[in-house]
From TrEMBL:
This is Peptidyl-tRNA hydrolase. Gene3D superfamilies: Peptidyl-tRNA hydrolase. The record marks N9 as: Discriminates between blocked and unblocked aminoacyl-tRNA. TRNA binds at Y14, F64, N66, N112. It is found in: Cytoplasm. Belongs to the PTH family. GO terms for biological process: protein quality control for misfolded or incompletely synthesized proteins; rescue of stalled ribosome. Its main location: cytoplasm. Pfam families: Pept_tRNA_hydro.
Amino acid sequence: MKMVVGLGNPGREYEKTKHNIGFMVIDAMAAKEAHTPWREDFKALITTITIDGEKVLLVKPQTFMNASGESVGPLMRYYKIDASDVYCVYDDMDLPVGKIRIRPNGSAGGHNGIKSLIAHMGTSEFPHFRFGIGRPLPQWTVIDHVLAPFPEEQQDKVNKGIEDMAKAILGTLEVGLDKGMNLYNPRKGRRQ
């Protein structure tokens, strides 16, 4: 069994914010695949899809971003899922808007949701699916930036990025992480 965790904040006021890109990608994946009814469990909204005969949990923690690990750690232990089978999708300010990058592991890089996951999972050795949200405007704080919606002029890039990321995660679930990184990570000189 594998688990795909999309990071975000619960509540209508956060729905369209940059910090909720993980939820948006999970919703896009659920829209592409037959899935069980959503249920609330382990402080998360959870549904199940099946990829190549293997069950995959799609998870949207409802703890607020900074406490995401309080949901993911217990879920991982309950279902006996290895950290290497917990795919985490989240917003990344170091990537341009809509760009995606897959890494086999990594540090939190200042991202509080990832810090919480590492603390509650006891490891940073889980696949990171990073979605670019760009840097804050000069007069904006990081919090202002991540809790604001994407501007209208970026919406096409964001929608394409969500599609690309959903496709990349579903594809990686089929072919494995190494092949997935080869297939879906941008390469220098290759058009995206």
